[in-house]
Amino acid sequence: MTARIIDGKQVAADIRAELKAEVAKLKAKGIVPGLGVILVGDDPASVSYVTGKERTCAELGIYSDHHHLPEGTSQDELMRLVARMNADPRINGILVQLPLPRHMNESEVLFAIDPEKDVDGFHPVSVGKMVVGEKAFLSCTPHGVLHLLIRSGVKIEGSHVVIVGRSNIVGKPLANMLIQKNPTGNATVTVCHTRTKDLAYHTRQADILVAAAGRPNTITADMVKDGAVVIDVGVNRVEDASRKQGYRLVGDVDFEAVKEKASLITPVPGGVGPMTITMLMYNTVLSAKRTAGIAAD
Ligand code: NAP
Description:
Bound molecules: NADP nicotinamide-adenine-dinucleotide phosphate
Number of strands: 11
Largest sheet: 6 strands, parallel
Number of domains: 2
Order of helices and strands: EHEHEHEHHHEHEHEEEEHEH
């Protein structure tokens, strides 16, 4: 079997087109969704992520309030900016680009964000609400995985999902979303990590296999059941002298071999990646609607 490729760029573009139309309708009612973006320092990957977020805000008509602070910014200064954004009615969502410089306390900053504006879904209030099945902002990468599955017609209910990785930003929230007793959950979920005995035994049980380990070739073809759906969250740089920049991006899955066994598979790049920024925009629009009292969810 050769897998159908899930085109994350296309799914993300479809969702963004829906959001753009929704933002236009909100604007006609005098509501302009706004995102506050804070970047501290000049880490090239972070600069490029933040630039992508601003570009997407502009594309969708979302107001963006961007603050690029120098590397040496103090914790107090950053906390004051977060407090100002919490109080600013033009801002519906606050994004602090991670990682922060080493002298900063990341948790203190993230926990200071008003949960009503926590569009990254990292605040413990958001996480707790998600776990108990209350309305919350779902964190963007796992929420993106969920939408990729839904929009690709994958049956989640009753499926055995095996997730490789238990981080707070991917594995744990995704597992929680998928076990919820609701129409987009109802899966049976196994979460694997570096202390899992016989990883391949578990991955071979998966109807839906999600790789979020951050290591190339963590998932090889012998670890995948025939016809499984394979979602590759990993983004890894591997040396490649044939490329101008000297590297290329690969996921955690041996794509070429696994695509001959899976029924559906996401590529890297072009799979989960484009969904993450899109779900941030989704949450920002949702936050604006919730503030205006017109959100259905
Ligand atoms: P992380 O915090 O480093 O967590 C990795 C997890 O994978 C850990 O739970 C680790 O287990 C587990 N793991 C690592 N190697 C393993 C192995 N050989 N066998 C079993 N488990 C293994 O990483 P993360 O932040 O979740 O990110 C994971 C990957 O997704 C990275 O490549 C990252 O760049 C990518 N990512 C992509 C997006 C996107 O938008 N596409 C967003 C976020 C992350 P332990 O807990 O035991 O250490």
